[in-house]
Amino acid sequence: MDTTQLLQYFEFIGFDVYDWALVFGGLFLLLDIADDILEKRMDKKHFLEILANLTTQIPYYLIELLIFGAYVYLAFYIYAYIPWKIPVTVGSAVLVLFLADFTYYVEHFCSHRIRLFWLAHSVHHSSPIMNVSTAFRFSMFDPIVSALFHVPLFLMGFHPILVFMGEVAVQAYQFWIHNEMIGKLGPLEWILNTPSHHRVHHGSDEKYLDKNYGGILIIFDRIFGTFQEEEELPTYGLTTPINTTNPLKVQFFEFPILFRDLWKANSWSDRAKYLFKGPEWKPENKPRLK
Fold it and tell me: How far apart are CA 106 and CA 217, in angstroms?
């Protein structure tokens, strides 16, 4: 198989397979809703949360459509002008997938530990329920953050199609791990990010905070000390619940909180720390305002 054929094959994996993953995610969501009904979790509030999760896709895709052309242009521009290029092979595609998964871990970690990025990522964590609809709950700014973190893969010399394939494959994997239907999966729990591990990630309980950042693999969490086993069913949502299903409030809940902190800050140094330290940071370790 020559390079052109390989690129066509990996482009199929990166884009057509993602379309099928969306279909699978939709069918899985229907199954999850049926489980919610059978387990008597479905009430008016639960249903409205599902709608709030799904409506975040509207501004998310609008922004993604706006930046996608620029993102693709940047990727191919970088690839065209760097003097080093990694050959397109099955081996380099597997390596890109592994690096894309590690990039997701780094992006995910930064999205929790840098407040400027938390503005966007907090949307995904603000739902008090856990089902497949939560996998669709995104900030309109998420595509911009993701694009920024994947630029180093282009600079390393990987063909843009391979990078896109890896990035999309990691995202597509996320659909099935947002649920309470599936319990623990035995030996797979040691290697893969599973529904059990991801339920922990969405927990607002103290011991579950900022744990299990993995995309496809859970090994990076085990290596870097951010892993936490699921011991009991988590309490989902933010430590300060948003208590709303209003789509605008869901998108921008954290913004006025940050603006208030920046306005009240006593120095530019404190303002910078509000932006680039964790969301819990306060001068002199003062408790965060509720």
Answer: 13
